[in-house]
Design goal:
Blueprint lengths: L1 H5 L10 H6 L18 E11 L5 E11 L1 E13 L2 E2 L3 E6 L9 E3 L2 E5 L10 E11 L4 E12 L6 E13 L2 E12 L2 E12 L1 E2 L5 E10 L4 E12 L4
Antiparallel strand pairs: 1-2, 1-15, 2-3, 3-4, 3-5, 5-7, 6-8, 7-8, 8-9, 9-10, 10-11, 11-12, 12-14, 13-14, 14-15
């Protein structure tokens, strides 16, 4: 469960099908959605999990910044687990296909993992491919594939994930995610149903809370999500 998580209601007036899909374009909780940040808009992502059996917890903070245009995005992730700093990740993502208004979007990512954790001594590189595809007027699917390599002493790790998001309304989404991680015959699958909703403000600020229940092979966890997205300069 821990390895999988570290890779970790409002009804509005009816709008068009595209508005239903794009009303809450955010990260899924365990997976990436293939939409880079719009120019001039920054996102702050908070993710907290509490293991029900081990009584352990994990927290991650991610900040995403556009670089010049929607094509390029830089971000970083700071993980903390049971009060211990984990390995900080520096991410670059390229919007290869589409954008938030497209039926298909692909945004390959390259990540450098720094050995900032208490017991870490290996630097890692992770490559991931998030793919987002609109399947209908209210349904969108997100697929993640990738692998992580370290400079010494640790076997390569692989992951694959799939989420399906259903737009209950332009500001409320229900979602189900599945994430598999594996390394040298040791693998884990988690499945997580959840819900997220958005508060939109005239200033351009969007606040997205969410909650999910993560079911693993050995134990379960409660997941809490909170995202803030806002302009950092005039468009």
């Amino acid at each position: 469960m821990k390895r999988a998580l570290l890779f970790v209601l409002l009804v509005a007036a009816p709008l068009s099908a595209q508005d239903l899909i794009t009303g809450v374009q955010d990260n899924s909780f365990l997976l990436e959605e293939a939409y880079n940040q719009d120019p001039g808009v920054v996102q702050h992502i908070n993710l907290f999990t509490r293991d029900r059996d081990a009584h352990s917890w994990a927290y991650g903070f991610t900040q995403e910044w556009p670089v010049g245009s929607i094509k390029h995005q830089l971000s970083y992730t700071i993980p903390v687990s049971d009060s211990n700093l984990g390995d900080v990740a520096i991410n670059y993502r390229y919007q290869l296909v589409g954008d938030g208004e497209s039926k298909l979007a692909i945004a390959p990512r390259l990540t450098v993992i720094l050995p900032t954790g208490e017991d870490s001594d290996a630097t890692g590189v992770q490559a991931g491919i998030p793919i987002s595809r609109v399947l209908g007027s209210r349904v969108i699917a997100h697929t993640n594939l990738g692998a992580t390599w370290f400079n010494h002493g640790i076997d390569a790790q692989y992951f694959a994930g799939q989420s399906v998001v259903f737009a209950i309304s332009p500001r409320v989404n229900a979602l189900v995610e599945a994430l598999w991680t594996g390394s040298s015959g040791d693998d884990e699958l988690v499945i997580s149903p959840g819900i997220r909703w958005a508060y939109n403000f005239k200033s351009g600020l969007q606040v997205v809370p969410g909650i999910a229940y993560v079911m693993g092979d050995d134990n379960d966890a409660v997941l809490l999500y909170l995202s803030f997205e806002h302009p950092f300069r005039k468009q």
